[in-house]
Design goal:
Blueprint lengths: L11 H14 L4 H14 L3 E2 L12 E6 L2 E6 L10 E7 L4 E12 L2 E9 L12 E10 L5 E13 L12 H4 L12 E4 L6 H10 L6 E10 L4 E3 L5 E4 L2 H19 L9 E7 L16 H12 L4 H9 L2 E5 L2 E2 L22 E3 L10 H14 L4 E3 L11 H9 L2 E6 L1 E3 L6 E4 L2 H13 L11
Parallel strand pairs: 1-2, 4-13, 4-14, 14-18, 15-19, 16-17
Antiparallel strand pairs: 2-3, 3-13, 5-6, 6-9, 7-8, 7-10, 11-12, 12-20, 16-18, 19-20
Helix pairs in contact: 1-10, 2-5, 5-10, 8-10
The structure holds zinc ion (ZN).
Length: 451
């Protein structure tokens, strides 16, 4: 029987991986990831601030939720924006299949659900999996005003069946071709589809009349639970490791930091932010490309009575670590990786570099993360894409451009990025928590020019 996350394994590193598994299971959609981060931060003393209300002027631990995004910070224990911000950013969304507004369809005696592909999905990884549904639903309240409800159904409701090899004889020799419009339509029952089936399904599950369903952001998720993998259990197999691993690590890091002693003689404000919509470019009202983070940081500075000049000085004294998945060297495709920048699992966090600034890392950011790594007693690895392959990107360059602060892209090595089920080393989540904790309390973001 495969080990699962409910059966603990000795060793502190593995405990963190098991806890990451629980975080991932609690977070099938970005909205659930935000809710789980808020729940954990609440246990660490963070209280939720309403963006539309008055801003708290007392020092403390606070967070703001906007859709599937969360920003949390601490100004207690002598922490002040006068010493700048130490920001760790990550994203709550993962590539998946999302239910269309008029999804009821079918063919050949099957009832099917129309879906749209969200982000850079490895389409084949969604075939022949038992899928549940989750997300949020807008419902007309009893007073007629709309309200949002979190929704999840962890039952095998959907499946995108593969075509039998007998009907596609060249699939292994010539490759699998999948048309997202024609070939990725999940079936979810038999019989004739009728207009309104999905709305009635949601209404039934939410125990409201069907006429009160106003809209939804609902998506499919694989039901296979996270598992420690290998004879030595040295690997973690799970959905959404990109990028719930980083959300989990940053949540645990800021919780551990504020639980410890405050900085002596004042220190920077630790900030963690988890953005939705990274997988589709970050340009949304709650994405890393929005005004959300700059606005919140400015309000934090204002609450500390910094004037406009003080706000700009605080930004200049700040640094950001953009936390997102990195590619481990694939043992069956070693040639796809840059020979001098091989990356291994369970060998430490990975600093990601790109000369064309698809990653924000530069020598200044590298120096900052190196000093955090020394304090955390973790080794670092370095990733560069091959010169003959295009490079991916993340929120690092986006936040760097919005704020104008030093940013470094760092992540945990993984395989199967953007698959419905990904994999990473079981010891790496603990190393990442340690690194992020030290980054959040770096006393200085300055790397002075030598005389
Ligand atoms: Zn990512």
């Amino acid at each position: 029987m495969a080990p699962d996350v409910t059966s603990p394994t000795p060793g502190t590193g593995r405990e963190v991986a098991l806890d990451l598994g629980r975080f991932i299971t609690a977070s099938p959609s970005p909205f659930h990831a935000a809710a789980e981060a808020v729940r954990r931060l609440g246990e660490a003393g963070f209280t939720t601030v309403d963006e539309a209300g008055p801003w708290p002027t007392d020092d403390g631990r606070y967070l703001v939720v906007r859709g599937g995004s969360v920003v949390a910070w601490a100004t207690d224990g002598g922490r002040s924006p006068v010493s700048g911000f130490r920001v760790v950013g990550a994203h709550t969304d993962s590539p998946n299949l999302r239910v269309r507004p008029r999804p009821d369809t079918g063919a050949a005696g099957f009832r099917q659900l129309g879906v749209e592909v969200y982000g850079g999905v490895l389409l084949n990884s969604w075939l022949d999996r038992d899928l549940g549904l989750s997300g949020r639903v807008a419902v007309a309240g009893t007073d007629g005003r709309p309200e949002l409800r979190l929704f999840r159904a962890d039952e095998p409701l959907l499946r995108v069946p593969q075509l039998a090899i007998h009907l596609d004889r060249t699939v292994n020799s010539e490759g699998l071709r999948l048309d997202p419009q024609a070939h990725m339509v999940p079936l979810w029952g038999t019989g004739r589809a009728e207009e309104g089936d999905f709305a009635r399904f949601l209404a039934d599950r939410l125990d409201v009349p069907a006429g009160r369903i106003l809209g939804w952001d609902v998506m499919a998720h694989d039901l296979t639970p996270p598992a420690l993998l290998g004879t030595d259990r040295s690997l973690l197999a799970a959905p959404r490791i990109d990028n719930l691993l980083s959300c989990h690590a940053a949540t645990e890091a800021i919780a551990a930091l504020v639980d410890g002693p405050g900085p002596e003689g004042g220190g920077p404000v630790p900030v963690v932010c988890f953005f939705d919509h990274e997988e589709v470019g970050s340009e949304s009202a709650s994405g890393a490309g929005s005004s959300m983070l700059p606005t919140l940081l400015e309000r934090i500075a204002g609450a500390a009575s910094l004037d406009r000049d003080g706000w700009f000085a605080a930004l200049a004294a700040s640094a950001c670590l953009s936390a997102d998945g990195a590619h481990a060297t694939h043992p069956n495709h070693v040639g796809r990786h840059e020979p001098n920048h091989q990356v291994a699992v369970n060998a430490g966090p990975v600093v990601k570099h790109n000369a064309n600034v698809r990653y924000a890392t530069d020598a200044v950011g590298e120096a900052l993360v190196a000093s955090a790594a020394v304090a955390a007693h973790v080794p670092l690895q370095h990733f560069v894409t091959r010169g003959d392959l295009p490079c991916g990107s993340t929120i690092g360059p986006v936040t760097a451009a919005r704020l104008g602060i030093t940013t470094v892209d760092v992540g945990v090595a993984q395989l199967s990025m953007h698959s419905a089920r990904e994999m990473c080393g079981a010891d790496d989540p603990a190393s990442f928590v340690a690194l992020l904790t030290e980054f959040l309390r770096l006393p200085s973001a300055a790397v002075p020019v030598a005389p």
